[in-house]
Every structure is written in C-alpha cells, then in structure tokens.
Amino acid sequence: MTRARTAVVVGSGPNGLAAAVRLAGHGLKVRVLEAADTPGGGARTSELTVPGLLHDVCSAVHPFGVASPYLASLPLVEHGLRWRWPEVDLVHPLDDGSAGVLVGDVDRTAAGMGVDRNAWRRVFGPIVTRFDDLAPDVLGPLLRVPSHPLALARFGLRAGLPATVLAKAFRTPQARALLMGCAAHLFQPLNRPLSASVGVMLVAAGHRHGWPVAEGGSQAITSALASVLAERGGTIECNAPVTSLADLPGADVTLFDTTPQAVAEILGDRLGGRRARRYRSFAFGPAAFKVDIAVRQGIPWTNESARRAGTVHLGGGAGEVAAAEAAVVAGRMPQRPFVLVGQQYLADPTRSVDGVHPIWAYAHVPAGYEGDATAVVLDRIESYAPGFRSRIVAAHSTSATGYESYNPNYVGGDIGGGANTPLQMIGRPLFAADPYATGVDGMYLCSASTPPGAGVHGMCGAGAAASALRGLGISVTSLGGQGQAARTRRMWRA
Fold first, then answer.
1. Which Pfam families does its entry note (predicted)?
2. Which residues pair with 444 in a beta bridge?
3. Element holding 101 (H helix, E strand)
4. CA quadruple 145, 149, 155, 159: dihedral sign
C-alpha cells in the first residue's frame, strides 16, 4: 500500500488555510498548526465594543477576495460564505463636501466624474474588460512568463507609474483623490515608481466585482476555508506554536504562513546563506492604528454618498494623501493621517444590535508607533461628519504594537506582510525563480510576504501549495481558467 503523503502548514491565516486546502485537494494528509486559540490570522471577527456587535479585527472589505481566482475555484458558498455588497462601494470626501465616488461598473462611476468621465473610462476601462484574465498574472509572482502578456502590459503601463503621475490624467480634485486614496493602500510614498499599482488594481477590482464584505464578518471566510479543509480530511490544531524545528512534526512538505524572519529562526542553520540573509533583512512598512467604534444610528456624514458607502477614505485632496503617506514612511506622525473607515453593516445588517452599528477605522501611522492615535482617528471622522462623537456608545483601540502582539506577522504594526518598496514588490521575499521555496528541501513560505502580497485572496497560499506539489512531482492545474470561477462568482452574486 502506498503511504499517504503528508503536509504541515504553520499558521491558519487565509494564506495558510488556502495552502492547506489546495494540498488536501491533491490527496495530502494536512495538519495546520496555529499558535493562537482560534484560526484566522487577519480574518477574524470579535465583539470588541458592545455585546453582539461584530467587529472585524483586521481585514474587513474584500475586493480581492471576491476577485481571487483561487477562492473562486473553491465551493465556499456551499460551506457558508456569503458576500454582501453595499449600495456604494467607496467614497473619498473632500473638505468642501464633495467626493470621489466609486459605485458599480466603470460606466456608472465615470458618469459621476463630470469632465473626467472619458478620462476615467480611458484609464480603467481596458483593464476592467480583461480583469478576470489579468488577475492570475497580477495576483502571482511577477518574475515569470505571463499567461496574458498584452493585458499585463496594458496594466503595467498604468501600474508602473507613480500614483502622483497617474493622478494627473484627471482634472477634477474628486477623481484624483479617489485614485490616490486607493493607491495609499500601498503604505508607501506615492511619488515612487509602481506606487499606482495597488490603486489601479483596487479600482479595477471594484468596477469588475465590487468591494463586498463577508456576511457575519471576515471570520466567515476563515470558517468556510476551514470547513472545506475538514471535508478534504485536513485538521487544524490551535494553541500549537512553532518556534523551532523541534516543534515541527515530520512531513513530506511544510509550509509557513509566517514572516521570513520567523522561517529563518525556525530553520536556523538549515537555511542557506543567501536566503538566510534576505529573510532576516526583509523590510516591513508603516503601521495601522485601529479604532473600533459602536455608533448609534451610524455616522452623520456631510456627503450623502458616504452615508451609503461600505468604505470611506479620509485623506483630503490628492496632495494631502501623498504628504501623509510620505510622512509615515519617514517615521513622522502626520497631524491629518490617512484614515480608512469601514461601514460593513450597511451591506451586512447582521453585525448591528438595536440601532447601534459597528464602525471599523484605522489610521496609517509610522512603524512601531507607540502613541495613542484614538483621538486623531475620531477627530478625522468628526471633521467630515459633525455630530459623530455624540453618537459614540463605545470604542476599542488597537495600537501598532498591539497589532504585533495580536499577530506576530504584523511586525511593528505592518498589517501588509512587508514594505511595498519597488524592489520588494518585484522580488518578494527575494529575487528567485520560485519565491515560495526556502531552499530547504520540502520547506516553503506561503504568507503575505510572498507574491502577490497583502489581501484576503489566498493567492500566496495557493502559489506556495502549487510549488510544494510540483516539488513532490504532482501535476498542478493553472488558476487561469474562467469556467468554475465565473460560475462561483455568479453564485456569490445570486
């Protein structure tokens, strides 16, 4: 009788679970080891303020989740995952009460852009049209031969620019601010090459698939992945930290949903010199300071569209966004930092209790920031929604250092798995033909520190699992096919 091949996955974040599910789907017997007492990593939900009120602990809104080729290939609907869409996906209000508004497809959004109507279609229309073909190439290692080179080249002409340069394609402050707010998700200076990349992808994903939330909280994504894994025979063991090789059970392959530094510590002398040096020097970026707020009757935004939006970016004009991001990267706390606000309850009312609604908000702050930015975040919201503070029932803050305590992968409060410098975006975690392989036989890195980086899309885990399967001589199907993914997305929308 042939012995069943085995796999161990260290960490149960979305990438660890995605890797485990893919390995189990190819017949491996999979164990997931999680240091915390519950699985999920960045995709957990908890009652942080008022009993019954559901707050997402980290990840909250999921344009890349619904757009992910790998997640769309899984029967997550059958395992309880329901995506819910707000009436308006994203609003970026300005100080004069106007706003950039992303709502639905590119034509509906462009229709509200005034003189920038045609420019918005020209920049984003071609990418949106080919988005589902483009996604497997963009949401994977960049140092490889693409499946759709022309579509990727068209994307690259925009994504490779500094965000400050691409913003000049638009004449109105509303359109420029809307793009720059999306680009700010990079947590990097927005005048650098490639700094438009995340913004372009977020806008295009929004136009193609929207910016949905998971019904019941982001924990529902974890629960659905865990359920698929259990159906395929895999197991999750919580309260099982791994800090050295002695903590690892024997397995044919081992995957780490951890930082590169953690892998270097665990593997020690078994890790080759070049990789050991690169893993230990892997750079992390600025941090998030999060405030979860229980608000009676919601936020009284001055801008009407913001009252219907699942996500609101508070950053002021394009220049102010750029200045704030440059400051936090340089280690300075801006007086008016970029703040993201999530109103997930508008799409998913199950999160609210008796007219009190959960509000998710975080500010970009310097790495390892030790100050208390609670008042800064609340003041930022109040400036666009006078009377907001009087509606607050309770609040709960998570500092940059608190985030690292919550999840060791968030070094210094960096929730993105590593700094998105141009070189580190291309060679993440290092320049190699296989960025997931550690160079140690049977050992692979599958966290957000690998391509394509941050986001609840599972593509880092799926890519690492594919690498591990190929190492075992097992054929792996490409994620580029559209049949099952398209059917699954139609089910999500139903």
1. NAD_binding_8
2. 255, 437
3. strand 99-102
4. positive
Q: What does the block give as tokens for 250?
A: 């024997």
Continuous H helices in 149-295:
149-159, 163-166, 173-183, 197-209, 219-231, 260-267, 273-281
Distance CA 109, CA 102 (A): 5
Residues 330-349 have pLDDT tens digits of 999 999 999 999 999 999 99
d(CA 474, CA 459): 19
Q: What residues have CB less than 8 Å from 80, skipping those under 6 apart? A: 220, 223, 224, 227
Q: What is the pLDDT of residue 353?
A: 97
The reported pLDDT for the residue numbered 141 is 85
Task: Output DSSP code: residue 472.
Answer: T
Q: Residue 64 corresponds to which amino acid?
A: F
| 373 pLDDT tier (thresholds 50, 70, 90) | very high
Pairing status of strand 287-296 against strand 392-398: antiparallel
Mean predicted lDDT score pLDDT of the chain: 94
Q: Are 211 and 91 in contact (CB under 8 A)?
A: no
With 70 as the cut, is the pLDDT of residue 488 above it?
A: no
> Quick check: 460 and 479 in contact, CB under 8 A?
no
Q: Are 189 and 326 in contact (CB under 8 A)?
A: yes
Given a contact cutoff of 8 angstroms between Cβ atoms, the answer to whether 263 and 54 are in contact is no
**Which two structure tokens, joined as six digits, stand for 486?**
């398209």
* End-to-end CA gap in the chain: 45
Least confidently predicted of 1-15, 275-289, 315-329: 1-15
Domains and CATH numbers, the chain: 6-46+215-282+417-493 (3.50.50.60), 83-213+285-406 (3.90.660)
